[in-house]
């Protein structure tokens, strides 16, 4: 497992990984090489293959499984795998669950939660709009990750992230009943609908041309607007819902077209930010011992977080 190589230097023999991403490059001496990011369910590791032949180029594709021999080195303080040899592995030869991270809740359960939240939307226009958009993009919406690397970067991560926000929003609405429940549900479920077109697959996902040029916030707003016009939804309802999508990153420097200007949009932004950052921190927690600090987290102000000892396990002094 990749996690076992985080504090290791030495040989790696006949290890199987999935290619998450790769690029071709040229070394200082003019020779081509491959730069890869390899993954299994425990994490990712950077890798290099400095000698490349035609067979390597056929094998090295995002989403492919490879068996490698090589050496773990430390480069700029981080482990890196120098690949000496690699060969392709067929998906049916291994247990894919060891190499492709998935949401922590089974997909069938996530779909049940989704239907439950959709059924709680009381406004017929908002319910029809939200249900139709999800139905029209159902496979991608329920299987795509929420991001490529930062948070919820696993199969069904988009759905799981959206449901987590919806659950939290409804709990907050109990304490602040002036919040409009239907907007909270619709906004939570649709805020990242644009990622169904921004990303290109559930496994080894990358950005589409549309994703690179427009981004999921603008794509999602357009998807909601087009469907809303088709269904002739009331102008204010459509505008408020689109505003929630356009503002859910909070500030223009983080990709939002607007800052949140409704109470529901503000709640969506706060919960989206919180859920993404807690998921990010959870991933760093996996490689951090109790009583130690994480490495600096670029997506959280480049801060190192302290992981306290569990109180029920801490020995009394």
In short:
With 317 residues, the chain is an alpha+beta fold.
How would you explain this protein's 3D organization?
By secondary structure, this protein is α+β, with helices and mostly antiparallel strands. The protein is about 40% helix and about 20% strand. It has eleven helices and seven strands. The strands form two sheets. It has a five-stranded mixed β-barrel with strand order 1-2-3-5-4. α2 (about 105-120) packs antiparallel against α6 (about 180-190) and α10 (about 235-245) runs parallel beside α11 (about 265-285). The protein is globular. It starts with 9 loop residues before the first strand and ends in a 10-residue tail after the last strand. The mean pLDDT is about 90.
Which key phrases capture this entry?
single chain; 317 residues; alpha+beta; 5-stranded mixed beta barrel; two-stranded antiparallel ribbon; 11 helices; 7 strands; globular
Please provide the count of β strands. Answer: 7
Beginning-to-end CA distance, first to last residue: 36 Å
Q: Describe the largest sheet.
A: 5 strands, mixed, barrel
Tally of contiguous helical segments: 11
Secondary structure category: alpha+beta
Q: Please, what is the average pLDDT?
A: 92
Strand order of the largest sheet: 1-2-3-5-4
């Amino acid at each position: 497992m990749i996690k076992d190589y985080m504090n290791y230097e030495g040989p790696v023999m006949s290890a199987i990984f999935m290619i998450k991403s790769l690029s071709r490059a040229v070394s200082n001496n003019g020779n081509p090489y491959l730069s890869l990011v390899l993954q299994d369910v425990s994490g990712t590791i950077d890798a290099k293959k400095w000698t490349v032949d035609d067979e390597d180029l056929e094998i090295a594709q995002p989403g492919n499984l490879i068996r490698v021999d090589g050496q773990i080195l430390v480069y700029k303080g981080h482990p890196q795998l120098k690949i000496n040899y690699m060969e392709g592995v067929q998906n049916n030869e291994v247990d894919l669950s060891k190499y492709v991270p998935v949401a922590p809740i089974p997909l069938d359960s996530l779909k049940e939660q989704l239907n439950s939240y959709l059924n709680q939307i009381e406004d017929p226009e908002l319910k029809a709009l939200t249900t139709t958009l999800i139905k029209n993009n159902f496979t991608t919406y329920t299987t795509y990750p929420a991001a490529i690397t930062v948070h919820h970067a696993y199969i069904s991560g988009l759905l799981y992230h959206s449901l987590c926000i919806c659950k939290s929003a409804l709990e907050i609405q109990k304490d602040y009943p002036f919040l409009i429940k239907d907007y909270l549900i619709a906004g939570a479920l649709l805020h990242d609908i644009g990622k169904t077109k921004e990303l290109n697959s559930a496994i080894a996902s990358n950005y589409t041309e549309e994703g690179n040029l427009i981004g999921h916030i603008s794509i999602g707003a357009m998807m909601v607007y087009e469907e809303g016009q088709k269904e002739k939804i009331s102008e204010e309802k459509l505008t408020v819902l689109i505003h929630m999508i356009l503002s859910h990153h909070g500030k223009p420097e983080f990709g939002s077209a607007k800052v949140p200007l409704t109470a529901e949009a503000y709640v969506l932004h706060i919960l989206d930010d919180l859920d993404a950052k807690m998921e990010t921190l959870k991933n760093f927690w996996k490689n951090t011992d109790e009583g130690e600090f994480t490495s600096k987290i670029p997506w959280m102000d480049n801060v190192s977080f302290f992981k306290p000892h569990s109180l029920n396990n801490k020995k009394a002094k």
